[in-house]
Each structure stands twice: as C-alpha cells, then as structure tokens.
Amino acid sequence: MTDTTSYPLLRTAGIDGMLVSFGARLGEAANRAALAFRASLERESWEGVEEISSSLVSAYLRFDPLALDHATLEARLRALMASRDWLQAELPHGRRLHRIPTVYGGSLAPQLAEAAQVAGMSEAEAVASLSSARVRVTALGFAPGQPYLGELPEVWNIPRQQALTPRVPQGALVLAIRQFVIFSVTAPTGWRHVGQTAAPLFRLGAERPFLLAPGDEVEFPQVSEEVFARMQADPDGGASWEAMP
Fold first, then answer.
1. Rounded CA gap, 96 and 203, in Å?
2. pLDDT reading at 4 higher than 80
3. pLDDT tens for residues 113-128?
4. Is 127 helix (H, G, I), strand (E, B) or coil?
5. 3-state secondary structure at position 142
6. In 155-181, which positions are buried (b, 16+ CB within 10 angstroms) versus exposed (e)?
7. Domain end: 88, 118, 134, which one?
8. At residue 196, does pLDDT exceed 60?
9. Are 120 and 195 contained in the same domain?
10. Residue that terminates a domain, selected from 88, 121, 142
11. What is the CB-side half-sphere exposure of residue 225 using CA atoms within 13 A?
C-alpha cells in the first residue's frame, strides 16, 4: 500500500505533547529532517516547552498546558514546519565522529556467520563491509544512551530473528533491517549479535553522560580478541572521537 500522508505531519501526543513527523519509515532525509527540526526547536527555546527529543523520523515536544496552550503551540509549530524544506535541511552543528573498535564473530559475537549467510556474503566479506561502514546515530532509546545507527548498505536489509536471543552482553553490536544497535545493558534481543565493543555508552554523573548523540557518526574498525581484551581495561574501551565540521 502506498503511503499518501503529507509530510511533515503534526499530531498531538496526549494532553501535553506534540509530534512532528517527516516520514512513515526510516530514511536518510527523514532522519536528517527530524534532527534538524529538533535543533531548530532547541534554538527557539519557547517558554512553556519542557522537553524536546527526536526519534528515527520525528521530533517531540512536551509542554506545560498551563503555560502554553495547544492552539498557540500548534500555530508556532506549523509556521516553523512551513519555514523551509526540512528534507533538504543540513544536519546540526557540533556533531562528532566516533571510532569504536569492535571484535567481529568468534565466541564474543557468535551470530556473525548467520547474519552473513542471510545477507549472501562470506564472513570475511561481511566483516569488510561492516568494519568500513560509517553510520549515523539516528536516535537513542530502549536503555540509557543506547543508539540506533544507520543506514547500512542495502545488502544488510535482513530481517530480525524468528525468536529472541535470551541474553546479549553490554557492548554487543547487533544488526537487522540496515541498522546497528549497541546494547548499553545486558538484555534479550531479536537482532543478530555480530560484533562486540568495550566502550561505555552511559556514565552516570558525567558532564556528557551519553557517549553518542543523535546526529553523531560512528565507525566500527575491526580489532582482534587479544586487542579487545586489553581495551577492556581502558576507561574509554578504546573508543575515540573527533569534532565534525
């Protein structure tokens, strides 16, 4: 079925929320628009708005209805929505490029071979593809600091598993539907565990508690299990970053 909805789309979210969406599903332009719109909202700094966040293709505002009524907020949002072509917007400034060393396959990431087979690749081809990819943090969710990253090349548009893996460890790099997720906590998942990282994603009380932010870009260069073992003693887990222009 073809989606005939006109975007951007404004919807209410309960009595104190508004949601502006830029597409029906994840795509580079829709995600870029959501990130740019969120940054624009933060610059506006409207009185009565208490929270601003973004998801894969949407920006969300939570507001105090006693300080800012629905009609006023809706009018402001519609004016901002109409102020430019958000699907052509530039990404916000202040983003970072992160490099997070990763072990692929073996005992630490036991589903690489299965993922490669589903994608029609050898394990070596899969590692070459994944370790050379640069992906964007499209959103944070599920657990503190846990990123969704994409999009990977079309060959990685593989489905989730039919059943859950009961447990993957903190730092697991999992894959499905052209996306990576790094687990910030130990949890079950229906995505395939293809890599293992050591970088802490969440540091309570730190000036920047989340390692990654929406809009940041990330590469996952391959390292051996021996190098990975040494990185586990590093407070940063071997991760590094640089400012993006």
1. 18
2. no
3. 999 999 999 999 999 9
4. helix
5. coil
6. ebebeebeeebeebebbbbbbbebbbb
7. 88
8. yes
9. yes
10. 88
11. 5
Other Cβ atoms within 10 Å of 145 Cβ, number? 19
Q: Kindly report the pTM of this predicted structure.
A: 0.93
Of 226, 152, 233, give the one whose Cα is nearest residue 194: 152
Same domain, 68 and 159: no
Q: Give the β-pairing of 96-99 and 217-219.
A: parallel
Neighbours of 78 (CB within 10 A): 13
Residues 163 and 191: their CA atoms lie apart, in Å, by 9
Q: Are residues 100 and 199 in the same domain?
A: yes
**How many domains are contained in the chain?**
2
88: DSSP letter: G
- Does any domain span residue 2? no
109 in a domain, yes or no?
yes
Q: Report the C-alpha gap between 80 and 65 in whole angstroms.
A: 20
Closest by CA to 239, choosing from 228, 107, 132, is 228
198/182 Cα distance (integer angstroms): 10
Structural domain of 37 = 9-88
Q: What CATH number did the domain enclosing 67 receive?
A: 3.30.1360.40
Question: What is the distance between the alpha carbons of residues 8 and 163, in angstroms, rounded to a whole number?
Answer: 35
**What is the identity of the amino acid at 92?**
P
Tokens of 117: 């087979």
For residue 69, being part of any structural domain is answered with yes
